[in-house]
Design a protein that fits this description.
Layout (H helix, E strand, L loop, with lengths): L10 E2 L2 H9 L8 E5 L5 H8 L3 E6 L4 H8 L6 E5 L7 H4 L7 E5 L5 H10 L6 E7 H7 L10 H9 E9 L4 E2 L6 E8 L7 H10 L7 H6 L5 H8 L12 H11 L4
Parallel strand pairs: 2-3, 2-5, 3-4, 5-6
Antiparallel strand pairs: 1-8, 6-9, 7-9
This protein binds S-adenosylmethionine.
Length: about 260
C-alpha cells in the first residue's frame, strides 16, 4: 500500500527517535495513551511493549486492517477509525483518568490539533507531538521573535512547552523535504483559555506589521485607554508582548470574563 501524501503519511523508521518520543511520555504500566495517527504502528509497537493501554485514532480506513493484523496479539490496543479533530478525549477513555497523548502529525493539521488540545486541557496529562520544525519554532518563539504569533501566545497560556528533539528527514519513510521537531506539552494546572483571551490575541496579531493600537482600535472601543492602563506603549507590536502583558490586557479589555 502506497503512503498517502494528502494525509501526511511519512512513517517513522528511526528506532532511536521512536525510543526518545516514547521515553519523553514517562510511562507507568497503568497509563493509557491516546495515539493520534498511528500509521503503520511505528510508535504503537513501542507503546505496547511498555505494557500500557493504547487507543489509536487513525483517519485512513485502509490502515485499520493493517494495524489490527499487526497487533492482533495485543488486547491492550483499541484502533479507532476516526478523524481526531472530530473526537473528544473524554469519550475515548472509557475507564476515566487522564491519558497521555502522542502523535507524529502532518503539517496541515498542526494548528487545529493544538486548538483541539487547548479546548480539552483538563482531560489529558501531557502530549508529546512531532510537528514540522517551523511549527515548533513558532510555538517556542520568545517575545520579540518574529515567529511569535497567535498560536504561540495561546499555546503558552495553556502549556509549559519543552522542545524534546529535532528530527532529520532521513528518520522517515518516505523521506520528507523538511526537518521535524518533537515537543512536550504539559497542561498548566487550573488554566482555562477563554474565548475572550483568544479574541484579544487574535485582534492584536490581525496584521503583524501594524502596531498594537492600530490592530486593536478597529475592534476594541477602549483600545487606547486599555494600553495606557496596562502600561504598554501603543506603538509596540503584538510579537513583543509577554504572556503576562497579554493577561494584563485581558483584565482591562474584558474584566467580566
Ligand atoms: N505514527 C506513524 C509513524 O510515526 O510512523 C504515522 C505518522 S504519519 C506522519 C501521520 C498519520 O496520521 C498518518 O497515518 C495519517 O493517515 C494520520 N492522520 C492524518 N490526519 C489525521 C487525523 N485528522 N486524525 C487521525 N489520524 C490522522
Amino acid at each position: 500500500m502506497k503512503p498517502k501524501k494528502a494525509l501526511g503519511q511519512n512513517f517513522l523508521r528511526d528506532p532511536h527517535m521512536i525510543a526518545k518520543i516514547i521515553d519523553s511520555l514517562e510511562l507507568a504500566p497503568d497509563d493509557t495513551v491516546v495515539e493520534i495517527g498511528p500509521g503503520r504502528g511505528a510508535l504503537t509497537r513501542g507503546l505496547l511493549a511498555k505494557g500500557v493501554t493504547v487507543i489509536a485514532v487513525e483517519v485512513d480506513r485502509d490502515l485499520i486492517p493493517v494495524l489490527e493484523n499487526e497487533f492482533s496479539d495485543y488486547d491492550k490496543l483499541t484502533v479507532i477509525n476516526a478523524n481526531f479533530l472530530d473526537t473528544n478525549i473524554r469519550s475515548l477513555i472509557r475507564a476515566g483518568g487522564r491519558p497521555k497523548i502522542v502523535g507524529n502529525l502532518p503539517y496541515y493539521i498542526s494548528t487545529p490539533i493544538l486548538q483541539r488540545l487547548i479546548d480539552q486541557l483538563e482531560d489529558f496529562d501531557r502530549a508529546v507531538l512531532m510537528f514540522q520544525r517551523e511549527v515548533v519554532e513558532r510555538l517556542t518563539a520568545e517575545p520579540g521573535n518574529r515567529e511569535r504569533g497567535f498560536i504561540t501566545v495561546v499555546a503558552e497560556s495553556a502549556f509549559r512547552i519543552e522542545r524534546v528533539a529535532d528530527v532529520p528527514p532521513r528518520a522517515f519513510s518516505p523521506v520528507p523535504k523538511v526537518w521535524s521537531s518533537v515537543v512536550r506539552l504539559l497542561p498548566k494546572p487550573g488554566v482555562h483559555v477563554s474565548e475572550a483571551f483568544r479574541a484579544l490575541v487574535s485582534a492584536g496579531f490581525a496584521q503583524k506589521r501594524k502596531t498594537l493600537l492600530n490592530n486593536f482600535k478597529t475592534r476594541l472601543p477602549n483600545a487606547e485607554v486599555m494600553l495606557q492602563k496596562a502600561g504598554i506603549a501603543p506603538n509596540r507590536r503584538a510579537e513583543s508582548l509577554t504572556l503576562e502583558e497579554w493577561d494584563r490586557l485581558l483584565e482591562l479589555a474584558d474584566p467580566g470574563d
